[in-house]
Amino acid sequence: MKSLHARQAPLADTGYQLTVLTQAEAGGAHLPPFAHQLRESGLLPLRPTSLAVMQINVGKMCNQTCRHCHVDAGPDRTEIMTRETMAQCLTALAQTDIGVVDLTGGAPEMNPDFRWLVEQISALGRQTIVRCNLTIIVANPKYHDLPEFFARHRVRVVSSLPHFSAARTDAQRGDGVFARSIRGLKMLNAVGYGVEGSGLELDLVYNPSGAFMPGNQLSLEREFKQRLGREHGIVFNSLLTITNLPVSRFLEYLLESGNYESYMEKLVAAYNPVAAANVMCRSTLSIGWDGQLYDCDFNQMLELPVDARAPQHIRDFNEQRLQDRSIVINQHCYGCTAGAGSSCGGATT
Amino acid sequence: MEKSTYYNPADLAKFGNITEWQAEMGNKFFGYYAEVFKEGALTEREKALIALAVAHAVQCPYCIDAYTTDSLQKGADEAQMMEAVHVAAAIKGGAVLVHGVQMMNKAKELSM
To answer: I need a surface site. Which of A62, A213, A251, B100 has the fewest CB within 10 A?
Structure first.
């Protein structure tokens, strides 16, 4: 499988994605604009709360080409953040009390300056989260020591594993990914990740491998712990359930499988005002590989930058002006407000 | 002609409308239903799989759609779901076959 970008698929154009998302009619049933729901919940315009997380997307390059990827990442993507832009992120970080820097991609470890960035974040006394796809650890000998590197910097590792069965994981992430992910998890466990008392946090991300929403986070966590423990001897800390948003390759999957309309109806029907109040964009700043600023990684992939009145690039960072902005919303936002809510940190209610 | 079959998938979403003609009984049913599927001595996933098996046994297309989705949402995989269907098939088949004993009893009673 290749990225939408490499295939020059119509959905590689974010304008076209937004056209699909904003079509008023879906399956004969009118989908209310997300803004209307927020207004009814007393949340429009959506405003930031306190800035707690800086999420940096260090590039779209990845060793995997997952079917649901909202980034349209893959080995054929060459966009990566330069050290100069990373330095601008660090300058901004140093001016704030932001405690957590969340590194994502692509496979963030494939950026040649990834380790430098983690070292600098550590030097500023802030915690790093790395969104590690697990297979990168075993993809090439130069990555085999990543678990030790992460441990040295007390990095919190957050890794996708959509299911404890190989078939369901491979259906989403590619043939053989489950087996390689298990090898990666064992290497992380071996240095103490996920092991009680080690202080090294290893969390797994469950996102459904199909057109349905995630179940109860705690129930799934229990099931994952039991199955991964019994069948593979693997331990981890928490399971984070994340709803797939209708963006990029997951949007392509929904359209091609004929599930788009019913999936959107499900998300709309499950709108939860409590989850809406807790959406992650209120406390996160998302930075693109080129330094552009966004409200979240999904807006980033739809090329919906922050409110025009706010600084647009990390070199112009100004926390007060960013805090005064209105968060940019669209129909995809229903994904974060459905059911128990969804964020990069899992359920929000 | 909008509807050409007895079963219409869109009707599943209208299930709640049964309260329009009998609110008290309908609401009691849905309240009970919601209580049944909460996690208790059985997990939500186990209950979804039982419901999936029963859905097949009673051959309810609405229930099969609903509990296939629900089983997936609760984290069940294809192998677990198909095993649940086999449990239903075994009980349905067994229920037929165990009556063979009654047939044998009766035949013996009537025969020399």
So the answer is: B100
Collect all residues with Cβ–Cβ distance below 8 Å to A147 and sequence separation of at least 6: A137, A187, A188, A190, A191, A193
Interface test with B, best of A170, A207, A212 (most B CBs within 10 A): A212
How many other C-beta atoms are found inside a 10 Å radius of the C-beta of residue A259?
16
What is this structure's pTM?
0.91
Grouping H, G, I as helix, E, B as strand and the rest as coil, residue A180 is helix
Q: Catalogue all structural domains in chain B, each as residue range(s) with its CATH number.
A: 21-110 (1.20.1290.10)
What confidence category does residue A277 fall into, taking pLDDT thresholds of 50, 70 and 90? Answer: very high
CB A54 within 8 A of CB A101: yes
* pLDDT tens-place string over residues A169-224: 998 999 999 999 999 999 999 999 999 999 999 999 999 999 999 999 999 999 99
Average pLDDT, chain A: 96
Hey, which residues 70-89 in chain B have their CB within 8 Å of chain A?
A: 72-75, 77-79
CB contact under 8 A, B74 and A212: no
A35-337 sits in which CATH class? Answer: alpha beta
Which positions in chain A touch B79 (Cβ < 8 Å)? 165, 167
* Of B44, B78, B79, Cβ closest to residue A215: B44
In the predicted structure, residue A333 carries a pLDDT above the cut 70: yes
Please tell me which residue of chain A has the smallest CA distance to B68: A212
Q: What's the full length of chain B, in residues?
A: 112
Q: Which tens digits make up the pLDDT trace of B19-67?
A: 999 999 999 999 999 999 999 999 999 999 999 999 999 999 999 999 9
Q: Does B45 touch chain A (CB under 8 A)?
A: yes
| Helix, strand, coil share (%) of chain A residues, nearest 5 | 40, 15, 45
Report how far residue A316's alpha carbon sits from residue A311's, in angstroms, rounded to the nearest whole number. Answer: 6
Which among B42, B52, B74, B83 is the top mutation candidate for probing chain A, defined by the most A β-carbons within 10 Å of its own β-carbon?
B74
